[in-house]
Prior knowledge:
By secondary structure, this protein is of the alpha+beta class. It folds into two domains: 42-180, 3-layer Sandwich (Rieske Iron-sulfur Protein), CATH 2.102.10.10; 195-278, no CATH class. It is built from nine helices and twelve strands. Helix content is 22%, strand content 20%.
Amino acid sequence: MTATDLTLRYPELGTGPVSTDVYWREEFYERELAAIFRQTWLCVGREDSIPDNGDFFTHELPTFHMSIIVARGKDGVIRAFHNVCQHRGTIVELRDRGNCKLFQCPFHGWAYSLEGELQGVPDQKAFYDLDREKRGLPRVAADVWEGFVFINLNPSPEQSLVEYLGAQGSELAGFWQFGQRNAEFEFEARIKTNWKLMIDSFTEIYHVPFLHKRSVAESICGPNNPTGHIIDFYPKYPHRTATLAGNPEYSPFPVQGLAWQHAAGPPVTSGGSDASQIAKLPVGVNP
């Protein structure tokens, strides 16, 4: 499928140039933070990392200079809170993860329950008109999909997580049995770039035969498709799925085959030409 095919089918994609203003103007970035990242469900971890009541992990959001606590309460429900004491604004939980019955601020000892409620205040009589019910940790919306924990900085989001994921979530739910899997490792990378440039790079294969010519290029770009035209594209606003072409003539060396099957890298589903098996794949997932 060529770019012309895509724009004919989906004219809303447009064919004109994109202004560079959206990549560097500070005021546009501030609008993005307010309209997108403060209103969108963000994946922050895995449910299997906090399997027991009292388990928690903290997650940093450096863009907003925020720290979030994600905890499994006594009732087994996963909740999220701003990791900031309501007394002097101190970070309450300094550990990356752990298990506890209370979160206690290291500065003055104010203590909060796993449900975020203010449970203990040393010398409480010294505080005039202190209403503990109004001084709990600020709530952050939290939900789980297929074992992945999502948060929304809007405590009362306009869409539930299921509504936000829409067709993308319903079509993929249960396919890879994500909810039954465990995270094996974590890694983090910080890149000095506009976030949209990262997204842009993952929406095209045009760069693969050049930038990745010593790694994945041969497996994707073959003689009949040297620049990696995609097979199809499925807009599921605000999400999208694309079916990528593979090189049928690619024959990896034995050690490369092991890497494809067992190393961290692009998702690879089992191959085969059985139509009944291919029919079970979600739309946009390659056989």
